[in-house]
Each structure stands twice: as structure tokens, then as C-alpha cells.
Design goal:
Shape of chain A: globular
Oligomer: heterodimer
Radius of gyration of chain B: 25 Å
Number of domains of chain A: 2
CATH class of the largest domain in chain B: Mainly Alpha
Shape of chain B: elongated
CATH superfamily of the largest domain in chain B: MetI-like
Number of helices of chain B: 14
Strand order of the largest sheet of chain B: 2-1-3
Largest interface: A-B, 36 and 23 residues
Order of helices and strands of chain A: EEEHEEHEHHHEHEHEEHHHEEHH
Number of strands of chain B: 3
Strand order of the largest sheet of chain A: 6-7-8-3-9-10-12-11
Structural class of chain A: alpha/beta
Helix content of chain B: 55-70%
Strand content of chain A: 15-25%
Radius of gyration of chain A: 22 Å
Strand content of chain B: under 5%
Largest sheet of chain A: 8 strands, mixed
CATH class of the largest domain in chain A: Alpha Beta
Distance between the termini of chain B: 29 Å
Chain lengths: ~350, ~350
């Protein structure tokens, strides 16, 4: 938890989003895909929480559930002190003015039949803000803020490159002057050369407009760059959450360690031993018993297969792992030492497995 | 960025469509038919397009559209539909602009009705000739005049019935596809039930019930049964687009279902739905012709191409009764099919890629 006394802007508790699995002629429910299963976090105003995880771990669903683009099935989402989940139509519409989303695919998120101007004006029209001239001014301002010229107003999305389209999508999110933005992999679909530009734009906008971000990505290094806090997700749950610097200095969860080992570094001295996870991500419709990560975890023990690991929290560094909890206890609360020991353990265990299979 | 003109989807589609000569020819043909339908009384008729009679200007030809448009003075002066002689005798000062072809779609032209012209031949003597380019039917009514005035019916059948079918189909498909769940379940089953009913049989049954079968009722019935394919296509498009990211973006901006369906999904779903509507127009024309051929179509005063074919049924030696309306029906149906195909190629991005 970010801990301070102030009321967080976004406060999510035990969020659950399950999709029913239907089968047969009468389409009765035979199970549920537990896309998000008990996720809790909070974001202070002006801060950025990064969400990382493999594809399919539920990070996109978290973002969409907060905005109720997907209806959550359980838990609570509080935005500025009010519960998003109990809002009715009109209230929800007002609330949506304050939180917006930028999607991953700038080719799919802009309506191909509309000009940039109509796309950007949409929100203003829905909320009946301003007259035609004022709306045009707002729209041009938003467009300029994202580094696009107002000359593109009367053009269609297909006339722009991916990076430009993403800028338009960001401008659309800004038009209603929201407080909170969900950035759903905003750079994953862009060329590497454009990614940095867009990331910097987002960072600048956060400072200029006092925005709060939920930054979803599978790219650890980008998340580290923009986020104050980072949550690591695996199979619908948060396995580790800490401030960005803490997480990078002293990752505790074996999954986080594996993710970090996959980040390419230029400095050969810093190059860590690559931890290659075996097996596939299990289906979220039948998550494994005990710790969800245990079938792929190099440190899995008997207890991991049976009991869901409890939350261990130390200086705002939160982790769900039996092994890590024991390690922290052993080092007497020295997270850094615990992290180093765990990394050592994982590395030797991976080497062992590799040796065995050879 | 330099200022330049931007073109929307439909403009680009039109540019691609324009490059297809067959589809363009078909479009020109349909436009020609629309022109013929509108100008029918000026092309073939026995009433002046414009005339001056007793100091006033009249347009008696409009009465071909609606009987009530016949200027009262001609009724009062007992013209009885015979204008050339009456105009001359009752007001020597009068003048008139006549239709291109002096032939009436509802009756045979009598002897010397037009100065120096013989009466229309009747029965099987009405071969195409100088005065009757497409021949006459067994009562001596000019086939060309009948066909020209029947164009309205042929076009209206297509547009009205498919307008109706398109509206029902898009609404049903949109509701089912967008809302899903039990609404979709219900609407899909209804669609399937309607789909199972053979249109022609249903129409024949309904015609038997309806008091006065008019062409409008026939159109309504064709439209009310022909929407199923459109509904299924619209449903698929709405289903696909409702979870697209631009729709999600609109929802997060606060747009309600109606706005999303009309402003965001419909413009994107329209092109694929327009194609079966075009093909539907062709089949509606065929259905109407078939009905008229079987004698269940519009009652005699309104001429339709199918009714002409029906006349030919009992007079097989009069080949011109089959040939000309048949060719007209064939060409019209073909034109609509070509337009549909051109539209499909111009709007479907997958087809576009493969043809480059």
C-alpha cells in the first residue's frame, strides 16, 4: 500500500471479474474464467501505478473493470471516495468524464468512419460541454497538447501513422479533462522508435495536467520508467507489489525474478542468469490449487501446492509467496538480503533442473 | 502538416466503384430507369405534357400519376381522355406539347385519334410496327407504353420492399447483435422461423386474405418476409463491432447504447449490409413479376412488367409480349446484381486487397 493518510484517488478492493463459460444447447454456465480474482490496490492522486504481467494474466481486464467497460463480478472500486460499481446510468456517465482510457491498438480504437474532429468532439457532445466554437477550441487544444497540428482535425484516422493515431487516442482521452487515465498497453503496438516519444509525451502530460495513471504493460523497463508503484500480476492475481525502486532493487517473488531476468541489459557485468520458466500459463478457468504459480515455480514446495500463500507486507513491499515469506523471516526483515538469497536460490535451482534434463 | 482534402470511406468506395465498367453501366441503367419512371407520362401517353386551353396552361399528363390531377376543366368539357381532337374543336387557339410516343398504357389508341394514324391492331396482329415499336397486346394496348408506365412499379417494388426489409433487418440485427443475451436468442429464433417460410407461398396465402390486393400491399409483404438475411448479417456486424476498441472508447466517454449503435457501429456495418439489400431489390422485382405472372399481382389498371408476361401466357404466338418485358426484367435484375457486386468489391477491404 502506498500507506499515507490521504484518501487515494482510486481504491480497488478484492476486485473479481469472472466470465461465465457456457456450454450445451441451453447454454448453462459450466464454469468461469477467473480473469481477475481478488485484486486490491490503490493509487494516490498524481501517481502512476504500473501493471505488468504476461498476456492473458488479466491486467487489461483490471483496467476495463475499473471503468466498468467490463462489469466486475465482485469486490469494490472506489474512485474519489465513491463506489463505481453501484453507480447508475447518469452518475456513471458523470464519473466517466473523470476517468478515461487509452487502448493498445491505435488502429482499432479510432472509428474509421469519423474524422479526427468528430472523434475528439464526441465526449464533449455527450456531456453537452460548450458551444460549437468552444468545443472546437477544446479539441484543438487537446490535439496540440499531444503534439499534433490542428490541421489534422478534418482528416480520417487511416491517413495517420500508428504513433500519430495513438496521439489522437490520447488527445481523445484528454478532451474531457479527466483526473485518471487507464493506459492499456499504450505503446505495445507501436514501433520501437515511436515508443519512447509516446512514453515521454505521457510523462509530460501527467505533470502538466496533474493526471493519475494506471499504466498497463508487459514491458518491465517502460513500466519502471513511468511508474511510482508497480504491481506484478500472474493469472488474475497480484503476486507482488512495491514502489518501483523497491521492486527493481529487491524483487521477492520468483515470478518477478523470472520477469527481470528476461529484461535485456547492455552491460554484460549486470547481465543476470536468465531464468527460463517451464510450461505454459495454466488456464484461468481452472487455476491450480494453492499458489497459482506453483506449477511453473522453480522453488515450489509441498505447501505451495496446497495452501494459497498469504500476503506479506514489509515497508509497503507486498508479496504473495510462501518461500519469500520464510526467507524474509529468516533474514529478520532485511528485504534486500532476502531478495538476494531468493535470486541465488532460483538461479541454482534453474541450473539444477537444466543439468537434470541434460 | 500541409493542408489537404481528406476523403471519407464512402468517397473512397465511390472512387473504387467508378473504376468498374460493368458496375458503372449497371448504375447508369438504373438511373435511366428512374428517369423513365419519372418522365413516363412525357414519354408515352395520350395526354399533353403541357397545353394551353381557353387561356390557361394545364399539364394533363400528370393524371397518369394520380387521377385526381386531371384538370377539372377537361372533365367538365367532356374530353373523355381524348385530347387531340377535343382541343382542336373546342378551342382553336389552343396548343399542346405531346408525349414522345402517342400511345396510352391503359387503352388502345383509336382510329384517327391522332390525325392520320390508324387504330392499334388487336389480337395476334399487333406485331411491332412503326407506331407500336414493341407491338400491342390482344386488346390493342401499346406494349411500350405499358412498359414505360410499368417502370415505376418495377422500381418501387425494389426500393419500397427492400427499404422496409432493410429497416426491419437492421433494427432486428442491431438489437440482437448489440445486446446479446436473451434478446439475441429471441430475435435469432424469430429470424429463423421467418426464414423457414417460403416467401412466395406466404404471399399467395396473404393475397388470398387481403381484401383489395394493391401493389403497395404486395411490396409490404415482400418486405416483411425478406429481411432475414439482412438481419443475420447486421447481427454479425454488430456483434463483431460492439466489442471493438472504438466502441469501448465511446462507452468510456459516456455514450449510451443508442448513440453507439447509430453513430459508431451502424456506419461501419452499413457497407456489408447494403450489398444483400441490393441483391434483395433484384429478387423483389423477380418476386413481383412472378406474382403478376401468376395473376396475383397488382390489379389491371397499374401496369407491371410481370402482368405483361401474364398476358403472354394465353397468347404464346405473340412473342413480343414475352420478349420485351422479359428482357426488361432480366436487364433490371442483372443491373441490381452488378451494382451489388460492385458495391461489395468497392467496400470490402478483403476483396480489395486480393484484387490489387
Amino acid at each position: 500500500m502506498s500507506g499515507s493518510g490521504a484518501v487515494p484517488l482510486v481504491d480497488v478492493k478484492n476486485l473479481q471479474t469472472h466470465f461465465p463459460v457456457r456450454k450445451g444447447l441451453l447454454r448453462h454456465v459450466v464454469g468461469a474464467v477467473q480473469a481477475v480474482d481478488g485484486v486490491s490496490f490503490s493509487i494516490q492522486k498524481g501517481q502512476t501505478l504500473g501493471f505488468v504481467g504476461e498476456s492473458g494474466c488479466g491486467k487489461t481486464t483490471v483496467g476495463r473493470s475499473i471503468l466498468r467497460l467490463i462489469e466486475p463480478t465482485g469486490g469494490s472500486v472506489r474512485f474519489g471516495g465513491t463506489d463505481v460499481r453501484v453507480q447508475n446510468g447518469a452518475q456513471l456517465r458523470l464519473m466517466r468524464r473523470r476517468m478515461q482510457i487509452v487502448f493498445q491498438d491505435p488502429y482499432g480504437s479510432l472509428n474509421p468512419r469519423m474524422t479526427v474532429r468528430t472523434i475528439l468532439e464526441e465526449g464533449l457532445l455527450i456531456h453537452r460541454i460548450g458551444n460549437a466554437a468552444e468545443r472546437l477550441a477544446t479539441v484543438s487544444r487537446a490535439l496540440e497538447r499531444t503534439g499534433m497540428s490542428p490541421g489534422s482535425l478534418e482528416r480520417y484516422p487511416h491517413e495517420f501513422s500508428g504513433g500519430q493515431r495513438q496521439r489522437i487516442a490520447i488527445a481523445r482521452a484528454l478532451v474531457l479533462e479527466p483526473e485518471f487515465l487507464v493506459l492499456d498497453e499504450p505503446i505495445s503496438a507501436l514501433d520501437v522508435s515511436i515508443q519512447a516519444q509516446v512514453v515521454n509525451l505521457l510523462v509530460d502530460l501527467r505533470e502538466q495536467c496533474g493526471l493519475t495513471y494506471l499504466f498497463i504493460s508487459h514491458d518491465l523497463s517502460v513500466v519502471a520508467h513511468v511508474s511510482d508503484h508497480v504491481a506484478v500480476m500472474y493469472l488474475g492475481r497480484i503476486v507482488e507489489r512495491a514502489s518501483a525502486s523497491q521492486l527493481y532493487r529487491e524483487p521477492l517473488h520468483p515470478y518477478t525474478l523470472a520477469l527481470f531476468s528476461a529484461v535485456p541489459t547492455i552491460d554484460p557485468a549486470k547481465r543476470r542468469r536468465r531464468i527460463v520458466l517451464t510450461g505454459d500459463v495454466p488456464s484461468p478457468s481452472r487455476p491450480p490449487k494453492g499458489c497459482r504459480f506453483h506449477p511453473r515455480c522453480p522453488l515450489a514446495e509441498q505447501v505451495c501446492r496446497e495452501i494459497d500463500p498469504p500476503e506479506v507486507c514489509l515497508d509497503g513491499h507486498l508479496v504473495h509467496c510462501h518461500v519469500a515469506a520464510r526467507e524474509i523471516e529468516r533474514t529478520g526483515g532485511d528485504v534486500r538480503a532476502a531478495s538476494a538469497n531468493l535470486a541465488e536460490k532460483v538461479a541454482s535451482r534453474v541450473a539444477e533442473i537444466a543439468g537434470d534434463s541434460r | 502538416m500541409p493542408e489537404r482534402v481528406s476523403h471519407g470511406f464512402w468517397f473512397a468506395a465511390w472512387r473504387r466503384y467508378r473504376r468498374k465498367p460493368l458496375a458503372m453501366a449497371a448504375l447508369v441503367f438504373v438511373c435511366f430507369l428512374i428517369g423513365v419512371a419519372i418522365l413516363a407520362p412525357a414519354i408515352a401517353g395520350t395526354k399533353p405534357v403541357l397545353c394551353r386551353y381557353k387561356g390557361q396552361i394545364y399539364a394533363p399528363c400528370l393524371s397518369y400519376f394520380d387521377r385526381r390531377l386531371e384538370p377539372a376543366i377537361f372533365v367538365k368539357d367532356r374530353f373523355r381522355g381524348t385530347y387531340p381532337q377535343n382541343l382542336r374543336e373546342k378551342d382553336p387557339e389552343s396548343w399542346a406539347i405531346w408525349p414522345l410516343v402517342f400511345q396510352d398504357p391503359y387503352r388502345a389508341v383509336r382510329d384517327n385519334e391522332w390525325p392520320g394514324r390508324p387504330a392499334n391492331p388487336t389480337k395476334d396482329e399487333g406485331h411491332p410496327n412503326r407506331f407500336n415499336l414493341f407491338g400491342t397486346d390482344q386488346y390493342g394496348v401499346d406494349v411500350l407504353a405499358k412498359m414505360v408506365h410499368g417502370t415505376t412499379v418495377a422500381l418501387a417494388v425494389g426500393f419500397v420492399s427492400m427499404g422496409l426489409a432493410g429497416t426491419i433487418g437492421i433494427v432486428v440485427g442491431a438489437l440482437g447483435g448489440y445486446f446479446g443475451g436473451w434478446i439475441d436468442m429471441l430475435l435469432s429464433r424469430v429470424t429463423e422461423v421467418v426464414m423457414c417460410i417460403p416467401t412466395l407461398v406466404l404471399i399467395l396465402a396473404l393475397v388470398a386474405f387481403v381484401d383489395k390486393p394493391t401493389i403497395w400491399k404486395t411490396m409490404a409483404i415482400i418486405g416483411a418476409t425478406g429481411w432475414t438475411g439482412i438481419a443475420r448479417l447486421a447481427r454479425g456486424e454488430f456483434l463483431r463491432l460492439r466489442s471493438s476498441e472504438f466502441v469501448l472508447a465511446a462507452r468510456s466517454a459516456g455514450a449510451g447504447p443508442l448513440r453507439i449503435m447509430l453513430r459508431h457501429i451502424l456506419p461501419n456495418a452499413l457497407a456489408p449490409v447494403l450489398v444483400p439489400i441490393t441483391f434483395g431489390i433484384a429478387s423483389a422485382i423477380l418476386t413481383e413479376s412472378a406474382l403478376s405472372f401468376l395473376g396475383f399481382g397488382s390489379p389491371p389498371p397499374s401496369a407491371s412488367w410481370g402482368a405483361l408476361l401474364n398476358d403472354a401466357r394465353s397468347n404464346l404466338s405473340m412473342w413480343w409480349l414475352v420478349a420485351f418485358p422479359g428482357i426488361a426484367i432480366f436487364l433490371t435484375v442483372l443491373a441490381y446484381n452488378l451494382i451489388g457486386e460492385g458495391l461489395q468489391e468497392a467496400t470490402d477491404p478483403r476483396l480489395r486487397e486480393s484484387r490489387k
